[in-house]
Every structure is written in C-alpha cells, then in structure tokens.
C-alpha cells in the first residue's frame, strides 16, 4: 500500500481508502461486511470512510464493530454529517450547531472511538450561516472529537469561504470528497485548482462510476443479477445516469487499454483517478473480500501517458466535465 499526505497537513492516509456507503448495514450482511474490513486491513488499507446517514447510522455501527480490537493509532477513521438521521425531525439534518454537536457524539458512540481523524460536512447547508457551521466544527476539534475537518461536494467558492473561516478559527480544513472518475470529471475545472491553491486534497468517491467502469454492464443487455443496477435500496438510483448504451459501448473500448497495462478494468479506473496529484485517496467499497483484494492492486500504479490519452479517446464526449454539475447536484434547501 502507498500512502499520501492529506492536504497540507502531516496526516498520511492509504491511497486506497475503504468506504462503506451503500454496503454495510444495507446491501451486505454484517458478517460479510466485517470480512471485507478484515480483508482491507490485511491488504494494508488503514483509512476507513463512513457517514452517519449510511443505512441511517447502521453503517457506522458495523464499521465500529469490525474495527474493534485494532490499534486505534494505526487507523484513520473518517465520518460525515449533514443528511437526515434518526426519525428525520426538523433538527435531525443540516449543519446547524445543534445537529453537528449531537451528530459527532452519536458517531463516536457507534464507531466505538474517542475521536475521528476527519469530520466532514457531507454537503453544503444553504440554510445555516457558514460561520455557525465552522464555529461548531472548530469546537468539535478543540474538544478532541475530531482532528481535522473536510467537506464533500462543495463548490470551489464554498470551499474558499469555508477554508477562510477555518483558518480564522485556527483549525485545518484539509479535504474535499467529490465524485470523480474517468466518466465524471466536473471537479477538474474549478474545485481542483482552488484546492491546490489552498492546500486541500481530494478523497474521491465512485472512482469506478458505481461499477460501470468494471465493464460488466453491456450495451443492449439487462444488468447482471445481483449487481448495483438491480438494487432497489439505493444502488439502482445512483447508477441510472450511466446506464446509457452509447456510454456503455464506449466503456467496452477500455478493455484493451486495461489489458495492455496488465490491469482489470476496475483497477484501471482506480489507478486513473490516482494519477491526479490533487487526489489523496480513492474510496472503494466492497460486498466481497476478493473485491478489496483486487482493487488494492491499483495502489502505486503509474499509467503511461499513452494509456491516459487512449482512455480519453475511447470515452470521447460521454465524459461529463461541466463544473456547474457540482452545484446542480447539491441540495438547494436543507433536506428533511
């Protein structure tokens, strides 16, 4: 496993980070989820990312149980706050001081730890003053409940404003967690340049584009049984944007490029995001331990310039690059 610094901090994280969104507590039974976490640890992954909203807090509980007994100082545990949890009451969502303070305590209990290494704003809250949010995060850090602060799916302007307030408050905002893959490159135009300037790294989710970049979804064919595209617990909704025959046809053209590099298509997709110097880690999930063992082989891979160019040529105009998509895919009002 290779490790990278997160932002301009001294914190190192594994460049393949294990994430349990859409799996632990929902798609995958607890025993299988624990086996995946054990496989991640065996492969050298030390960084684990979750969120309170995943399976309505159950994912944090599963991860906490799976990591129990490990040396805490050898792990980097990340979680997030914003989306509705619990019964979804009027204050069970957003980035108000009330919700942040209550949420961090709940997350720590479920994760069975005294602190998280990174506490992230899961989205931008348009209904809470940013000053209130950042002050609450600063207090969480000063209380020793989180070491660093991050954000997820914030625009470049939102990141700049949050970073400025964090700096004034004496805390470190060091990460951004956006969607990023060969097919979804919307952060490259504005978010990445802003983060490079501010000393913020990307921890990217969905580097395999919800499984599309594995090549298992064929144009003109029904999705494989048991795949994410057939999951009615959230997976199918997330992947449907990519379920287009022209796009799937383009993706099939990546197979010879992967073969030439000696990689599976999934490994090629993960290695591709890690070629971006502003990316500290690629988030990968799994429903089976062997998926973890395969994906981790993308760590440390350096793709030739010719391979990068061939990928661009193969995918052509199905790639989404519009920076406005970050804002377009974020909630305009607080979700209840």
Characterise this structure.
The structure is a single chain. Strands 3-4-5-6-7-8-9-10 form an 8-stranded parallel barrel, surrounded by 5 helices. A two-stranded antiparallel ribbon has the order 1-2. Helix 1 runs parallel beside helix 11 (289-295) and helix 2 (58-67) packs parallel to helix 3. 38% of the residues lie in helices and 13% in strands. The protein is α/β, with parallel strands linked by helices.
Structural class from helices and strands? alpha/beta
Residue stretches low in confidence (pLDDT < 50, at least 5 long) are: none
Helicity range: 25-40%
- The helix/strand series, from N terminus to C terminus, equals EEEHEHEHEHEHEHEHHHHEHHH
Question: Which key phrases capture this entry?
Answer:
NAD(P)_OxRdtase_dom_sf, oxidoreductase, 10 strands, K_chnl_volt-dep_bsu_KCNAB-rel, 13 helices, 336 residues, TIM Barrel, alpha/beta
């Amino acid at each position: 496993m290779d490790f990278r610094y997160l932002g301009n901090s001294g914190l190192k994280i594994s460049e393949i980070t294990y994430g349990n969104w859409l799996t632990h507590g929902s798609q995958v039974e607890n025993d299988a989820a624990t086996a995946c976490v054990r496989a991640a640890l065996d492969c050298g992954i030390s960084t684990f990312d979750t969120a309170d909203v995943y399976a309505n807090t159950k994912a944090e509980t599963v991860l906490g149980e799976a990591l129990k007994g490990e040396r805490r100082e050898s792990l980097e545990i990340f979680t997030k706050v914003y989306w509705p949890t619990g019964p979804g009451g009027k204050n069970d969502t957003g980035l108000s001081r009330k919700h942040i303070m209550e949420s961090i305590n709940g997350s720590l209990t479920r994760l069975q730890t005294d602190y998280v290494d990174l506490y992230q704003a899961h989205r931008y809250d348009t209904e809470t003053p940013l000053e209130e949010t950042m002050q609450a995060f600063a207090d969480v850090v000063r209380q020793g409940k989180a070491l660093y602060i991050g954000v997820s799916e914030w625009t470049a302007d939102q990141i700049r404003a949050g970073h400025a307030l964090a700096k004034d408050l004496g805390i470190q905002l060091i990460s951004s967690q956006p969607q990023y893959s060969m097919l979804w490159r919307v952060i490259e135009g504005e978010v990445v340049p802003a983060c490079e300037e501010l000393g913020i790294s990307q921890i990217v989710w969905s580097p395999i584009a919800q499984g599309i970049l594995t090549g298992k979804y064929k144009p003109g064919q029904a999705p494989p049984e048991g795949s994410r595209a057939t999951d009615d617990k959230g997976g199918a909704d997330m992947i449907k944007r990519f379920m287009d025959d022209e796009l799937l046809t383009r993706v099939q053209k990546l197979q010879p490029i992967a073969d030439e590099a000696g990689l599976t298509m999934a490994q090629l997709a993960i290695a591709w995001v890690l070629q971006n110097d502003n990316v500290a880690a690629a988030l990968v999930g799994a429903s089976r331990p062997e998926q973890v063992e395969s994906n981790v082989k993308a760590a440390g891979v350096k793709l030739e310039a010719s391979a990068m160019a061939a990928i661009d040529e193969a995918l052509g105009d199905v790639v989404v690059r519009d920076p406005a998509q970050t804002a377009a895919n974020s909630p305009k009002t607080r979700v209840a």
